[in-house]
Amino acid sequence: KLHSDLDKGVGTVKYTLSGDGAGTVFTIDETTGDIHAIRSLDREEKPFYTLRAQAVDVDTKKPLEPESEFIIKVQDINDNEPKFLDGPYVASVPEMSPVGAYVLQVKATDADDPTYGNSARVVYSILQGQPYFSIDPKTGVIRTALPNMDREVKEQYQVLIQAKDMGGQLGGLAGTTTVNITLTDVNDNPPRFPKSIFHLKVPETSHVGSAIGRIRAVDPDSGKNAEIEYNIVPGDGGNLFDITTDEYTQEGVIKLKKPLDFETKKAYTFKVEASNLHLDHRFHSVGPFKDTATVKINVLDMDEPPVFSKPMYTMEVYEDTPVGTIIGAVTAQDLDAGSSSVRYFMDWKNDVDSYFTIDATEGTIATNELLDRESTAQYNFSIIASKVSNPLLTSKVNVIINVLDVNEFPPEISVPYETSVCENAKPGQVIQTITAADKDLSPAGQRFSFKLSSEASNKPNFTVHDYRNNTAGIETRRNGYSRRQQELYFLPVVIEDSSYPVQSSTNTLTIRVCRCDSDGTIQSCNVEAIFLPVGLSTGALIAILLCIVILLVIVVLYVALRRQKKKDTLMTSKEDIRDNVIHYDDEGGGEEDTQAFDIGALRNPKVIEDNKIRRDIKPDTLRFTRHRPPAEDNTDIRDFINQRLKENDVDPSAPPYDSLATYAYEGNGSVAESLSSIDSLTTEADQDYDYLSDWGPRFKILADMFGEESYNPDKVT
C-alpha cells in the first residue's frame, strides 16, 4: 500500500506505478494506492521486482512528491521436489569386495531457496537394493552392505535411490533415480575339467602337426581371468603329442608330433593339466588354480603304403661297367596285417633314368647303358614302391649312384710347355718346376713320377729331378749354352701315375736359349738379338733401324735415277735400229781394262757364265736367268753358246733381228785367292780363331762369334 502525506482522502491525489512487472504482474489502485498481484508468482522464475511509485495532483497532473523506488521480494515456498540431474546411474564394483566398499556417489538438486526454511534440505535413502548396498543420507555415497558378493552367483543389481527435501520430514517433496550396479570379475575360480578321462580315436595315417582332438576345462570367470594354459604331464606318450590353447574357445587342441603306427603301438595314455595364466594372490588360500585330466588315445589301423628300409639309398659303380650289371637293390615292406606283396618301378622324369633299370619284384638296380664318369659323375633318381593289393598306395625313395673312376687317361704335364735357359747357366741349375694333371678323378694319395725318356737320358744337356711330391725340376747339365749353335732344345719327359692300370705319357718340353745378365734376368730370347751389340738400349736400336731404312731409301732412289738415265741415253741413239753395234755411252775402265768387250774371253774354260741383261733393248723384266756349270773345253763353250742362242730365239722380248751378245767371264781370279770358306777343304771345327781376340776392339764381335765353344751336333737334346 502506498500513501502520501498530502493525501487528505478527498480524491485529489492519484497514485501511479512503473518499473519491473508494472501492469503485467502488479497493478495499483489510483485512489487508495493499494498494490495487487494480478497473476501467480514463481520465486524460482524471478525472486524480486524493482518498482517506482509517484503521487500526482488529479487536477494539475503535477507530482506532489518525488518518485520513490521500492523492491517486492517473492517469498519462497516448498513447491519444487529434488531432482537427479545425472540419473539414471551406472556403476561397478569388484566381486568379493568387503563391506563398505565404495560404489558411487549420487546428487539431487532442489530449486527452492536453500536460505529460507528446509525447502532445499535434501536427504537420501534406498528404496530398492537392500541389503546389498547402503547410501549415506547426507552425501549420497553408495557402498556395499554385504561381504563376498559373487559375480558367478549374481552379476547385475538395480538400486532405487530417493532424495526428499524438508529434511525428510513429513510433507516434503521427493525425487528418485535408478543406479545399475555390476559386479566385475576377479580370478576367484580355478579351471575344472568336466570329466576326468577323455577318449580319442586317431587314424595311424594322421599327418604330423595335425589336430587329432580337443579337450576343455571350464572356468566360471570371464575375460583374462578365464584364460587357460594346457600342458601335457610327462609320461607315457608325452613325447608323441603336443597341446595348445585355442584363444577363442579356450579349448586344448591336441596335435601329433610324431607319426603313429598301429602295428607298433595301438594306444597311448597321458595326463593334461589346465591352469590359469593370471592369478590373484588374494585367493591363493582357496587352493591350486589348476586341474588334471587323463587322455586316452586309441590308434586306428589304416591301409598304408609300403615302407622302404632306408630313407635314402647310395650306391657305387665303376665307369664302363658292362650293361646289365647289378649294382644294388632297394627293399620295401607292407607293414599292415595283410602284408601285401610289393612292386618296384622307376619314377621316369628325365633321360637320366634310362641309364638304369630295376627289377619289379626283387628291387635290384642294374646298368642299362655304359657309364662315363667324365661325362656324369653322379646320378640321382627316385624309386616308387606300390602294394599289389592296392596299387594306389605308393611310397618313394631317392637313390644316388656315384660313378667311380677307372684309370683310363694318362697324366699330362701342366702348363707351361715352354721354358727358357740362360746362356751363362751353370750345371745343376733348376730352370723350371713342372707338375702333372690327370683327367681321371685322382683318388687320395695319387702320385705322379717324372723321368727323361730313354733316348734323351744319355744326352748331356738337361735332366729331370723328381721331387716325389707330384712335382719335378728341370736341371741343366752343361756349363753355358750358345744360341748361335742351338736356340731350341726339346726335352721329352715321361710321366706315370700310380693308379691301376698304370698310365703314362711322354710330354715334350721346349727349352729356349736366352741371353741373360749376371743376375740371371732374361734380356732377349730372339735369334736376331745374337748379332746385336751388347749394351744398346731400345731407343738406340730404333734409331739405328731408322737410319738403315733412310739409307736404303736413298740407295733405291739413286739406283732408280741411274737406270732412268741409262734408259734415256739408250733411247736417244740416232743409229739405225738394225745395226749390230750398240752405243752405250759408258766410260771405259782405263788402261788396265784390257779385256773390255774382248770376245776372246769366251774361250777361257775356267770362266763362269754370267747371264747379263741385254742392253740393246729396254729391260722390262728379267727372263730366263739361269746359272750354268763352268765350261770345261771348247765343246762345252759351243754348246753353251748354242743354248743361249736358242734361248734368245724363243725370248718374246728379243727384237726380231740379229744382234751382238757379249758373254764375258770374270777371269782367272785373284792371285791372293778367294777369302770365302765355301769351297774350303777344311771345316770350321778345324780353324783356330783365337788370334781374332788379339786384333783389337774392331774384331770383338767376330771374336765372340767364332771364339765360343765348338758346336757338337751329337749333344743336341
Automatic annotation (TrEMBL):
Task: State whether keyword Ligase applies.
Answer: no
Q: Where in the cell is it found?
A: Cell membrane
Q: Name one GO cellular component term.
A: catenin complex
Q: Which GO terms describe its molecular function?
A: beta-catenin binding; cadherin binding; calcium ion binding
Q: Which residues form the Cadherin domain?
A: 4-84, 85-193, 194-308, 309-413, 413-531
Q: How does it sit in the membrane?
A: Single-pass type I membrane protein
Q: Which SMART domains has this protein been placed in? A: CA
GO BP of this protein: adherens junction organization; calcium-dependent cell-cell adhesion via plasma membrane cell adhesion molecules; cell migration; cell morphogenesis; cell-cell adhesion mediated by cadherin; cell-cell junction assembly; homophilic cell adhesion via plasma membrane adhesion molecules
| Keywords, comma-separated and alphabetical | Calcium, Cell adhesion, Cell membrane, Cleavage on pair of basic residues, Glycoprotein, Membrane, Metal-binding, Phosphoprotein, Repeat, Signal, Transmembrane, Transmembrane helix
What is any Pfam family matched here? CADH_Y-type_LIR
Q: Does the keyword Transmembrane helix apply?
A: yes
InterPro entries (UniProt xref): Cadherin, Cadherin-like_dom, Cadherin-like_sf, Cadherin_CS, Cadherin_Y-type_LIR, Catenin-bd_sf
Q: What residue ranges are annotated as transmembrane?
A: 530-561
Q: What does the protein in this record do?
A: Cadherins are calcium-dependent cell adhesion proteins. They preferentially interact with themselves in a homophilic manner in connecting cells; cadherins may thus contribute to the sorting of heterogeneous cell types.
Record protein name field: Cadherin-12
Query: Which organism does this sequence originate in?
Result: Leucopsar rothschildi
Q: What are the top taxonomic ranks of the organism?
A: Eukaryota, Metazoa, Chordata, Craniata, Vertebrata
Name of the coding gene: Cdh12
